[in-house]
């Protein structure tokens, strides 16, 4: 792993990222052609000459380089409407933190993560704090991004969303299903980037805090610490009974309902989406005549949703769902 | 708005899909076309969608343009959107060679796998020609690719709006020349297969009729 040592010394910055072409080339044809290609391309060439002069390039290294490239693409397109990111050094922070996460076990970069990382950098001055907050957030959300090649983790939540809507608003579900939207793929963005695109910047942060408060469980800390990133949903088994009053409202509702059921482990975000859909229900029922209209209505609400209203809606739907699902 | 009188506001509705690598400018191209603006856009998550009305000759057209996320991870999700598309635009970035080579390595294969429309019109678009000095794919290579894969070809810039309208117009003209596609997209078109109750069929004047 000569190569990876060389890379890890290299400081990442948006300006000197290697060209993806070279990475792909190395993957396909081996190092010789890389050296050749490097000589014909100025972008990242010095870096690659150094890299390949040490021998064959490890596949892991190439994967790493591809991810680096993707980070570069995403970083330059994240929250660009914010004045904050007009400063190059702030962009670099975002870049650095995403790069750092690549070194974590079982951590693969996916589009959308920059949306989740960005607020941490805006809010926390210290880069280390931003990193650890983002890293813990990803422990919570990693499952959404996990891909098996056939499906993406978040799709499991869409299945629950479907059953929730069937119970809460059967007419809407029928309508969506008829239009070919019964898979709820149109709602994927809300779950994937935790409503960053549907709410304003401040609105989504407000929403995030509400989510964390509502889902709060004193055991969560141990759960996240005990399991390295990428672990599956875990049952807390440290035996001591926890007091209900310590938990967030959403968690309390789950506990009262037996807590350990599958639904009990559902994140509140699924109910938040259900709440947004319910809010748009009449519009969807009357105006959507095709899947295109559905996507348009959902995508057009960017930035003008009310976080508080959506949360209380989600809590109501959750209550109703638990009650009806029991029957 | 189209009413239940069954008189739609357009003669044809065509579904067009934008595909290509992450960051080549699919969303920017679409925004440039539908609202004449160029903006810093966030990476697309899943799919996005826009509508554009065009009048070509005496025909009123409604274009439903689906903008897909380019990243590999989303490919399983976006595959379902190929269904029933009359036109597919493959976009690459003329300044990044790998986005061009991925068209034959990945995207053309995706079309073969998922497109349900045999006659579907394909179009190759090289974006970002405003960065001429950074060009990494020559126009000739684009033309050659288009010849091999039997698709239309244009180079454009979503930023300067050069050739943006032409991209979509050429595609639409070609769709209009293809009887099987116009039959699908025509507002009085097929009403079969669709699992919809009769009261709705007059409104569902879209290609989704044949998608279920």
TrEMBL record, chain A:
<protein>
    <recommendedName>
        <fullName>Rab-GAP TBC domain-containing protein</fullName>
    </recommendedName>
</protein>
<feature type="domain" description="Rab-GAP TBC">
    <location>
        <begin position="54"/>
        <end position="215"/>
    </location>
</feature>
<dbReference type="Pfam" id="PF00566">
    <property type="entry name" value="RabGAP-TBC"/>
</dbReference>
<dbReference type="InterPro" id="IPR035969">
    <property type="entry name" value="Rab-GAP_TBC_sf"/>
</dbReference>
<dbReference type="InterPro" id="IPR000195">
    <property type="entry name" value="Rab-GAP-TBC_dom"/>
</dbReference>
Automatic annotation (TrEMBL), chain B:
<keyword id="KW-0653">Protein transport</keyword>
<keyword id="KW-0636">Prenylation</keyword>
<comment type="similarity">
    <text>Belongs to the small GTPase superfamily. Rab family.</text>
</comment>
<dbReference type="Pfam" id="PF00071">
    <property type="entry name" value="Ras"/>
</dbReference>
<feature type="region of interest" description="Disordered">
    <location>
        <begin position="182"/>
        <end position="212"/>
    </location>
</feature>
<dbReference type="InterPro" id="IPR027417">
    <property type="entry name" value="P-loop_NTPase"/>
</dbReference>
<keyword id="KW-0813">Transport</keyword>
<dbReference type="InterPro" id="IPR001806">
    <property type="entry name" value="Small_GTPase"/>
</dbReference>
<dbReference type="GO" id="GO:0005525">
    <property type="term" value="F:GTP binding"/>
</dbReference>
<feature type="compositionally biased region" description="Low complexity">
    <location>
        <begin position="202"/>
        <end position="212"/>
    </location>
</feature>
<keyword id="KW-0547">Nucleotide-binding</keyword>
<keyword id="KW-0449">Lipoprotein</keyword>
<dbReference type="GO" id="GO:0015031">
    <property type="term" value="P:protein transport"/>
</dbReference>
<keyword id="KW-1003">Cell membrane</keyword>
<dbReference type="InterPro" id="IPR050227">
    <property type="entry name" value="Rab"/>
</dbReference>
<keyword id="KW-0342">GTP-binding</keyword>
<keyword id="KW-0472">Membrane</keyword>
<dbReference type="GO" id="GO:0003924">
    <property type="term" value="F:GTPase activity"/>
</dbReference>
<protein>
    <recommendedName>
        <fullName>Ras-related protein RABC1</fullName>
    </recommendedName>
</protein>
<dbReference type="InterPro" id="IPR005225">
    <property type="entry name" value="Small_GTP-bd"/>
</dbReference>
<comment type="function">
    <text>Intracellular vesicle trafficking and protein transport.</text>
</comment>
<dbReference type="GO" id="GO:0005886">
    <property type="term" value="C:plasma membrane"/>
</dbReference>
